[in-house]
Each structure stands twice: as structure tokens, then as C-alpha cells.
Design goal:
The protein is of the alpha+beta class and about 110 residues long. The protein contains two helices and five strands; from the N terminus they run H-H-E-E-E-E-E. It is elongated, with a radius of gyration of 27 Å.
């Protein structure tokens, strides 16, 4: 008797809400877009613009955390001067941040 009363009570409180699901989803999609998707798309667009406008003399930080000055820009890669007589070649996609822009020519 007591078991059946608890079972009926549990079934009554756990009744599915058919209207809550679609409306909740309808409100959650725009919230996720505004808070998560849109800022990420904006960041990717800004980074793409930085990479395409990168030129010799810019100070950059790679995704690996390597700091240096751009010595030469090629079609898909660039040379990064990290010390005297030390130049490393990276893909352009390895750029994380362009710290400063300058018109200084790197030898």
C-alpha cells in the first residue's frame, strides 16, 4: 500500500512536460550563439586579418609561445628571427598574437 502510493506520487511528479522542451531549446540556441559561437567567429576573423597583413619587422608570438620578429613572409610560411643568426620557419597558421607592428627591416 505504501509502496504503491510512493510509486503513484513519483509518476505524477515525473510527468513529461511536452511544452517545456521545445521552448527551452528555442531560447537556448540564440543564447549559445551570442555567448559562444559569435565571439569565436569574430576572433578567428581578426586573426586571419592579422596573418594576411603580417609583414617583415612585426613582433609576433606563436601558438607555442615563441617570441620573435618576422624576418621574411612567404606565401604559406614566414621566417621568425628569435636571436642573432637564428631564424626559424613557421606556417602562418602558427601565429597566435601580433604584438606590435613596425617598419623596421630585419637583416
Amino acid at each position: 500500500m505504501i509502496f504503491s502510493s510512493f510509486t503513484l506520487l513519483a509518476e505524477a511528479t515525473a510527468a513529461p512536460n511536452f511544452m517545456g522542451g521545445p521552448f527551452t531549446l528555442l531560447f537556448m540556441v540564440p543564447i549559445f550563439y551570442v555567448l559562444l559561437i559569435r565571439p569565436q567567429q569574430k576572433r578567428q576573423k581578426e586573426l586571419k586579418n592579422l596573418i594576411t597583413s603580417m609583414k617583415t619587422g612585426d613582433k609576433v608570438i606563436t601558438n607555442a609561445g615563441l617570441h620573435g620578429i618576422v624576418a621574411n613572409v612567404k606565401e604559406k610560411t614566414f621566417l621568425l628571427k628569435v636571436a642573432d643568426n637564428v631564424k626559424l620557419e613557421f606556417d602562418k597558421s602558427a601565429v597566435g598574437v601580433v604584438e606590435s607592428r613596425s617598419d623596421v627591416t630585419v637583416a
